[in-house]
Structure formats: C-alpha cells, structure tokens
Amino acid sequence: MSEIKFTIDGKPCVAKPGQTIVEAAKDNGIYIPVLCHYEGLKPVGSCRICTVRVAGRYMAACTQPVQEGLAVENAAPDLEDLRKALVEMIFVEGNHFCPACEKSGNCELQALGYRYRLTVPRFPYLWPGRELDAAAPLIMLERNRCIQCLRCVRAVKAKDGRKVFAAVGRGPRTTIEADRKLTAKLSEEEARKAMDICPVGAILKKETGFAVPIGRRKYDHVPIGDDVEKGAGR
Amino acid sequence: MKHENDVIARHPKDPAALLDVLRDVQALSGCVSDEAVARIASHLKLSEAEVRGAATFYHFFSLTPRGTSTVYLNDSVTSRMKGRTAVARAFEEAAGCRFGEISPDGRIGLFPTSCIGMNDQEPSAIVDGVVFTALTPEKAGAIVRGLQAGTPAAGLVERFGDGANQSELVRAMVANNIRKRGPVLFGTHEPGAAVRKAVSMAPEQVIDEIKRSGLLGRGGAGFPTGLKWEFCRREKAAEHFVVCNADEGEPGTFKDRVVLTELPRLLFEGMAVAGYAVGARRGILYLRAEYAYLRAHLEAALAALREEGLLGKRIAGSKDFDFDIVVKSGAGAYICGEESALLESAEGKRGEPRDRPPFPVSSGYLNLPTTVNNVETLATAARILAQGAAWFKAMGTVQSAGTKLLSVSGDCERPGVYEVEYGLTVAELLDMAGGANAKAVQVGGPSGNCVSPAGFGRKVCFGDLATGGSVIVFGPDRDLFEIVGNFMDFFVEESCGWCVPCRAGNVLLRKKFEKVARGQGTEGDLRDLEAWGKIVKAASRCGLGQTSPNPILTTMKNFPELYEASVRKGEDFVPEFDLAAAIQDGCTAANRQPLCKESLHE
Prior knowledge:
The complex is a heterodimer of chains A (234) and B (602). Chain A is of the alpha+beta class and 234 residues long. Chain A has helices at residues 21-27, 77-93, 108-115, 151-155, 180-183, 188-197, 218-221, 226-233; strands at 4-8, 11-15, 51-54, 57-60, 71-73, 132-133, 139-142, 165-168, 175-178, 203-205. In chain A, the strands form 3 sheets. A 5-stranded mixed beta sheet of chain A has the order 2-1-5-3-4, with helices on both faces. A 3-stranded antiparallel beta sheet of chain A has the order 6-7-10. Chain A is globular, with a radius of gyration of 18 Å. The relative contact order of chain A is 0.15. Chain B folds into 5 domains: 2-55, no CATH class; 69-158, Glutaredoxin; 180-393, NADH-ubiquinone oxidoreductase 51kDa subunit (Rossmann fold); 403-474, Ubiquitin-like (UB roll); 480-566, NADH-ubiquinone oxidoreductase 51kDa subunit, iron-sulphur binding domain (de novo design (two linked rop proteins)), CATH 1.20.1440.230. Chain B is built from 26 helices and 15 strands. In chain B, strands 6-12-11-15-13-14 form a 6-stranded mixed beta sheet. The longest helix of chain B has 17 residues, at 523-539. The termini of chain B are far apart. The interface between A and B is large, with 48 and 39 residues.
C-alpha cells in the first residue's frame, strides 16, 4: 500500500494507510502525549490530551486517521498549554496523592505532570467523595485515582465478551464499576493485566505491593515520551 | 416478583433490547433493583455492570425507587421565570418530601428534569408519563392529592389542548400555540404527494432536487441535507437507514413537538423520501422520552400510511420501493440529540457520542450507512419534493433558504411556534411575539447566543444567528447571572462524562462563574473564565462541550458591563471561601453568637 505524506509542525512525515495521527507521529519520532490510548485497543478520545490542530480545527490525534497532505500543529505553545490544562483538570477532578500511591513512578498521569512541569494547577481542587471498591478477591478499584480513560472497560472482558468494567452514571458523576460476579472470577494473570493497563493507580492487584521499589520504576529516570523522541535522534 | 420476570422475558435475548427492557422494568416497579439488574444481565448476556451503566445514564431510569407515582418538574430557565419555585414548594408540601426524594409512604416521588419541550406553557411537569402544563401551586397540590387518592395521572387532566392534542390517542393538555403559519410546513400539502413524486424520479434526481433547494439541517448544525443523503447513498452496504432525530432537547425548543403532533404524516413522508433517496428500506423515529405521550398517535399515523400504501411494500405505486418506520424511545438524555449518541442509544446502549470519522453516513445504525435528520428537516424535504426546489429557494436568504420553525418562549405576550423566513431580525421577531421591552434574547438555546439589544438588528439565519429553533426572551427585570447559572447547571447535568474537558471543565467553569456572580470575582477571574471557556470549547469531543461555555462567553461579550460591575476592580485576589459567612454558619449551628462580630464584617 502506498504511503501517506503529511506534516507535523512543518516536518515531513509518512504514515501507513489507516494509521491515526498519534501512531504515525510515533513512527516518525514525534511524541504526542496521550493518556487514554493504549496500543492494541480501539482509541476512544476521552482524555483529549493528544489534541492537535489541523487547519484551525482541533481534533484528538488518537482517533483521527492521517490523510494525505494533513498539516498537523502539535507543539504550538497554546496547544501545549491546553494539554497542561487538561492534565490539571484530571488532577483536580480526582484525588491524587502521588507519594502514597503504589503506581508512583509507573503512573502515566504523574509522568505527564512532570513533563508539563506541573506545580500548582490553575483550577481549584474539587475534592470529590469517591468510593473505594475492594470487594473482588484479587483486585481493588481505587476510584479516587481513576481518570476514566476507559482502558479497563475496553480491555478486560469475560470469555463470552461481557465487560468486566463499565462506566456508570453520567457527567461529573460518571465512575467506573467493577462487575461483582465477573471480577470474582478474574485469574491472577487477568488481574495483573487489569492493573498494568490502568495508566494510574486506580486498579491495583491485592497483596503484592511495591514489588519494584520507588526510584527504580518506569518513569523515575526516563521521562514519558523520551523513548519516542530520543529514539528518533539515534 | 414473577411479573418483572415476565416483562424481561418478553424481550429478545439481544443486548440491543437493553433500553426497552429497562423502560418496562422502570415502569412496572418504579426502579431497576439489584435483582432486576441481575435478571436483565442474564437475559441479555451482558454483565451487571453494563446494565447498571445504561440504567444510570438516562434520567428516567433509577436504581432506587422513584415512588408509585413520579413527578418530573421541568427545571428550565423559563419554568423558573414562570413560577416554578412556588409550584415546586406546593408539590413538596402536598407530597411531604423534597425534590429528589420520595414521600415517606413511597407513593409520590418528586424529581427535577431538564427542559421537557413545553417552554411555551411553563411551569410544566411529566407525571407518570402524562404532561401537565401551566401549573400553579393550587394545581400542583390537586395533582398530588389526586394521586394519593388513587386517581391515575391521566384522570387528573382537566382539559385537553387544541388540535390533535384532543385526539383519543393523545388526550394531552398540551397547547400547540401555533402563532404563525408559514408556507412550507404549514402550507397545504396533498397527502402522499411527496412520496409519489419521489418514486417517479430516480433517487439521484431526488437528491439533486434537495441539493438545489439549498435545504440545510434544521437541528442547528446546518449541514446540507442533499449532500448528507448523497454521501449516504454512495456507501456500498447490505442496508442503509434513515433515522429521524426527534430528540429536541435544547432548552427552549418545542417546535418538533408541534410537528409530531400536527404533521406526523408529512414527517413520515419526508422519511420515506429520504429512504428512497439513500436506498434505505427501514427508518427509525428516535422519540425523546418526554414526548412518549405522542407515541400512540405516531404509531396510528404509521398504521394509516401503511393502509394507504404510503409505507410498506412497493409504496406509492412504485415497482420495488419498500419502506417502513419503527419508533424507538429515548429515556432522558440531552446528549442523545447528538446524532452519533442517538445511534448508540437506538442500539440500546449508553448515549455516548462516537468518534468521527467514521460519520454516520458511512457507519451509523448497526454500523450501516445512515442518514440522521431532524424532524423539521425531513418534513421540509417532503414539502420541497411536492413543491419544487425553486419554490423553496425563493424564500429566506441566499445562504439560508426557506423558512424556519422557531420556538419562542419567555417574557413575551405570544409564546409559541412561528414559521418565519430566514433573515428575520430579532427585533421583528420580538415585535411578532410581543416582547418589545426585552433586555436580552437567547437565540439557539443555552448552547447558542445571548443577544443584547445592540444585536436585535441581527438576522436569524446561518452565518449570523443560527438556531435549531429555541428563542427565549428575557424581560427588563431578569437577572442574567441567574439565567447563565441555570444554563451551566444544565450542561453539567447533561454532559455524558466521556471526555475530560466537558466532564471536569464545565464544573470548573460553573464554579468560577458562581464566584464572579456572587461578587467575589476579580478581573483575573474574568480572564480565567474566557481562557477556560476556550479550552473546553477547543478540546471537547462533541458539540455539547464545544458549545457549553457559550452562556458565559456570549454574555461576557454582549453584556460586559454586567461582569465589570460584579468584579472587585484592582484587587488581585479575592478568596472563594467567605470566612465571615462560614463563621456565621458555624455559630448558628452551635447556637451561639460570633465572639467578635464586628471584625467579621469589616
């Protein structure tokens, strides 16, 4: 199949047919930050952090297929500020206390916070009351940290296709629910997968905590996006 | 609970039946209990979490009891302007519970709800599916007492409205309030003329006729209808669909209600024309839950059309054009007016918008090519076919051809539906409706534009003041901050919660706006409102979040003096937290006086 030519911030790029802007950017050594997307899952455009601009129109780069001649604006200062604002919104709409979180150092939200040099969010904290669900034998759902990226909803399914996690409620009251009956049947491996796929510390495997000590975790030494950006320089 | 089992078992074992099952269970039991969730999940092969997900998305479903009888009192800004507060109090006193609760004996539940499409006859409420309009505190009390005495809600309606509202199948006290009959929708139409004309042409010619008429989508977005049909027709697929969007939820709009009441046959003709044009054999009318009282009337109109050969097999004398229509009901969610969310809901799921591309024209209902058109658009298309594109194009403005139905409400003498040519100015409309002394006019509902008198010369048309039809008039004594606050509450309530900027951003905008409205704002807060509003608009996934900051942004633009007067000039920082008020509250709770009262009010 023929390659698609497009540009990101003026840099000529090529994409395979059907690729989204996020995927194609990665192949071209350009990191477009994104939280809700996970390779292999259908993108849903829920976090909007990958928002880019094409001909004055804003769009989520994780859901938008590349088209011939697309001129994508990615690193414009106002876009970077918009992304920072979205990261801040996620922080203030939940209750995120990094130092006490099992996921610290492996957390993609925390890593993006560092990337955007987040100190104090411009928005007031909303301090929502959120329930922790520890009913399942192998996992717990710590909703204070949930960012509703819908990764678990998309990825974790029973053998007959039923969803183990589902969004309930609407608007600001939307939360993720772990199905009582189906989570009771999760295997060790499925529970591990559920925890690993969660970008934050909302889904945690019970009983095994801090197996890798803080300080030696994924983003402790290599900032998020570096693999893509530095990989291109080599 | 055998009965609930029966209700569930009646439905096919298909996840697409989820909303229909939930509706039946809610109607039977007044809630969707944990047991019901388990039964539904096992019947439809869904997880219980998925069932709960759909049940909690829609306003008219509930996991907890809503009472033997349930009152849903409209919470739109017009309802408030017309005396909602006193009516709500009367409901509460008679029922013995507050809004959001059910009475101690479980007989009456009181709940607020977003605009129910009765803005021309507020305050209004839906009680057990029956619409009550122009409520007064006395009427509210009488309704509750009647329900307590065991009278069904339908038996408490004292008089019916005009036209088809009086018919045996509707029997609603709703008034049509048709104030101006224009030549397109209210012109004389020979029944069946549009379909007969269509089937005598090639589908491409039908599309061409609509394209030449310049018809733009009447729901508000204004996409060219002919082009939409052409895109849909071009798609190769096993089947194509026509979906009519009868989910007008923008606060203040009710014109589709009148079309559905008085012109259902014209609408269905329009759907058949669309079906012929795009190559569909099936159409779906997605009817908002608030208009469920019209369902039997609509079904009867469909039956009559089948009888007359205008629906069904080889319709209108054609050789091979089969077309039929089914009605699907919503369950209370503004977002389902967004076409892709509507399709999700029609498939029995949470009404969350889809990512586009793919657009519904290529992947819509059941992922098949689908044209989703507004009620007014389809009815108008039928008239265009019957009368010709040139006839239509001669009306309105160059860019906005034809006429538009406007739903006018608020502080005016003659609220109701007006069919006007595009290009009419706000001032002319105010003149017609008797709202001469308006201090502001909300054109296009909360997601539209709040126009000040300086803008009354502006025209209602695409390119200037585009509107899906909602026009709300605010008189000289109205508090615009209160109105903006109500609109922001609406968007927070109706956001689907999928994407961050809409889910969190609207809450943050509302919070910041309230600070300013309370008189605790600084000039910096105004800059924040503008900047945050831009972020929410730019980053949101669908039209809801892309327009939800408009109540704040358009009033800031058109009424800057209001905001300037409200903020504390020269102060860099005013805390949101009011220490004096908090201490006062604390002391009241502790039943003592503040120790140094003077210092609190310096």
